[in-house]
Write a structure and sequence with these properties.
4 domains; 31% strand; Molybdopterin biosynthesis moeA protein, domain 3; 8 helices; 6-stranded mixed β-sheet; alpha/beta; Molybdenum Cofactor Biosythetic Enzyme, Chain A; binds adenosine monophosphate; Molybdopterin biosynthesis moea protein, domain 2; binds magnesium ion; single chain
Length: 411
Amino acid sequence: MSLSVCDSGHLLPVDEAIAHLLSQAPAAPAVHYVALSHALGRVLAAEVRSPMNLPAWDNSAMDGYALRAADLPAGGGYLPVAGRIAAGDDAAAPLPVGQVVRIFTGAPLPPGADTVVPQERCQVDGQRVWLPAVTLGEHVRKEGEEVHRGERLLAAGKRLRAQEIGLLAGAGVTRLEVYQPLRVGLLSSGDELREPGEPLAPGQIYNSNRHCLGAILRGWGVEVVDYGVMPDALAASCEALRRAAAECDLLLTSGGVSVGEEDHLKHAIAEVGSLDLWRLAIQPGKPLAFGEVAGTPWVGLPGNPSAALITALVVLRPFVRKAQGLCDLMPQAVWVAADFSWLNANKRRQYLRARLAANASGQLSVALHPQQSSAMLSAACWADGLALVERGQVLSLGEPVPFLAFAELLQ
Ligand code: AMP
Ligand code: MG
């Protein structure tokens, strides 16, 4: 059922559009197993339980001396050094009563030892060492204090970054159940588009969306199938869309969804699929469209490069994340004082290219780029995020404004 198609002039609020897209997101891709060495960027299809305690045994957090705290007089004192345990050594022999062992970071505590004193706080005197007063258990990493065997190490729906890979390796995990990468068919639309490197005839421009959107998708861990440019012609557009729909989980186009008679893409969609939603209360990016081609979801981003970038990061991203099997779908806005005043006299929510900076008093604030054109990308390159201003809102200098960081939107 069409939510907001047509020429009624009604613009769908961004949040409603995102919610609608999410309700239409395809089931997560099929599941397969990958080796840990190939798991970076993949999405866990099942939770991972730890096969072992982490740490596996009590060990020292410092280079120093391991002791039984009860053996030391309250104010500190001398104790004899019974031996030496380095990382990698076995520490099977119990700590003799009233003695200490020289120990190194990561070395196992001998049975009976419960506390470590860092070497900087000790004074060696021949075969004995002076130790200051201690707190029971200090500088000891206890067996299982990070996670116990059988407890959840990582939740399903989590993308594996370097730190997750490290955690899994540390627990001895070798194989993971992950979703297949989402396959997204990327198509640009417009007779004016040429590839960088090709000569430009009058009226032609370089295709920037193909590269920008491809980079966004790859950064999200998507498998991009690049179908190049659809000409501004109905039959060729239909053919390209049909082929891409048969080969991909999701279609992403840019351009051709505005209101002019040269916007052939909407007509092609009507021919080979259906249009479900069109025109959002967003600036830039009003002409965004959503529908399907032969059952494959299609997102039609606007052609203007900044509008394509912003709608991809704001509207497409949650949808793609759900289709990838991720559980955390929406970005987290932070509220920061605006270092500008702004009147949004528009009927659309604005996503302004902005940057976190120190204002004149050294306070963290959001600064705006003076150029907010939907056709130009330089402001987005200067920016490190987007400031949101609601339709009709009057924003005064110093008022908090929600800020979405590119660092989050691009991952
Ligand atoms: P359209 O939505 O097709 O009317 O395009 C709107 C504007 O975006 C026009 O100026 C197009 O030339 C431009 N445009 C469309 N697609 C691209 C693209 N892939 N790369 C750069 N500019 C584009
Ligand atoms: Mg066009």
